[in-house]
């Protein structure tokens, strides 16, 4: 119905961008995007797992010295995630 359920922000002191949000089987969310606050390169793939109320459960970033951007993800039957990145 368009009502805000929760609001929070994630990331560090530089730039972060969310590309997609997926609902997970535990009713939380996986936020897929990019960060320039963490990692080795200019941009890294940035994943944030939250609970149903938006509280961060964990975060991960992946990449090397080049730019990597997280685009979307899906949860697999075994509970892990498959991430599409460029």
Task: Record keyword descriptors for this entry.
86 residues; two-stranded antiparallel ribbon; 47% strand; mainly beta
Q: C-alpha Rg, in Å?
A: 13 Å
The biggest beta sheet is recorded as: 4 strands, antiparallel
Please state the overall shape, judged from the principal axes of the Cα atoms. globular
Question: Oligomerization state of this entry?
Answer: single chain
Q: Level of helix content? A: under 10%
> What percent of residues are in strands?
over 45%
Count of extended strands: 6
Average predicted confidence as pLDDT: 93
Which consecutive residue ranges, at least 5 long each, have pLDDT under 50? none
Describe the structure.
- The protein is an all-beta fold and 86 residues long.
- It has no helices and 6 strands.
- It has strands at 16-23, 29-35, 44-50, 56-62, 70-75, 81-85.
- A 4-stranded antiparallel β-sheet has the order 1-2-3-4, with no helix packed on it. A two-stranded antiparallel sheet has the order 5-6.
- A hairpin with an 8-residue loop joins strand 2 (29-35) and strand 3.
- It is globular, with a radius of gyration of 13 Å.
- It starts with 15 loop residues before the first strand and ends with a strand.
- The mean pLDDT is 93.
């Amino acid at each position: 119905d368009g009502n805000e359920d929760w609001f929070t922000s994630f990331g560090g002191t530089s730039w972060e961008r969310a590309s997609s949000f997926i609902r997970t089987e535990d009713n939380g969310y996986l936020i897929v995007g990019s960060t320039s606050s963490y990692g080795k390169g200019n941009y890294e793939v940035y994943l944030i797992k939250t609970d149903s109320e938006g509280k961060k459960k964990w975060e991960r970033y992946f990449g090397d010295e080049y730019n990597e951007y997280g685009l979307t993800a899906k949860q697999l039957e075994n509970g892990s995630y498959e991430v599409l990145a460029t």
